[in-house]
Amino acid sequence: MAIRPLYDRVLIKRVAEEDRTKGGIIIPDSAKEKPVEGLVVAVGAGKPLKDGKIRPLDIKKGDRVLFNRYGGTEVKLAGEEHLILREDDVVAIVQ
Amino acid sequence: MAIRPLYDRVLIKRVAEEDRTKGGIIIPDSAKEKPVEGLVVAVGAGKPLKDGKIRPLDIKKGDRVLFNRYGGTEVKLAGEEHLILREDDVVAIVQ
Amino acid sequence: MAIRPLYDRVLIKRVAEEDRTKGGIIIPDSAKEKPVEGLVVAVGAGKPLKDGKIRPLDIKKGDRVLFNRYGGTEVKLAGEEHLILREDDVVAIVQ
Amino acid sequence: MAIRPLYDRVLIKRVAEEDRTKGGIIIPDSAKEKPVEGLVVAVGAGKPLKDGKIRPLDIKKGDRVLFNRYGGTEVKLAGEEHLILREDDVVAIVQ
Amino acid sequence: MAIRPLYDRVLIKRVAEEDRTKGGIIIPDSAKEKPVEGLVVAVGAGKPLKDGKIRPLDIKKGDRVLFNRYGGTEVKLAGEEHLILREDDVVAIVQ
Amino acid sequence: MAIRPLYDRVLIKRVAEEDRTKGGIIIPDSAKEKPVEGLVVAVGAGKPLKDGKIRPLDIKKGDRVLFNRYGGTEVKLAGEEHLILREDDVVAIVQ
Amino acid sequence: MAIRPLYDRVLIKRVAEEDRTKGGIIIPDSAKEKPVEGLVVAVGAGKPLKDGKIRPLDIKKGDRVLFNRYGGTEVKLAGEEHLILREDDVVAIVQ
Question: What is the CATH T-level fold of the domain C10-17+33-94, as seen in this structure?
Answer without folding.
Answer: 10 Kd Chaperonin, Protein Cpn10; Chain O (2.30.33)
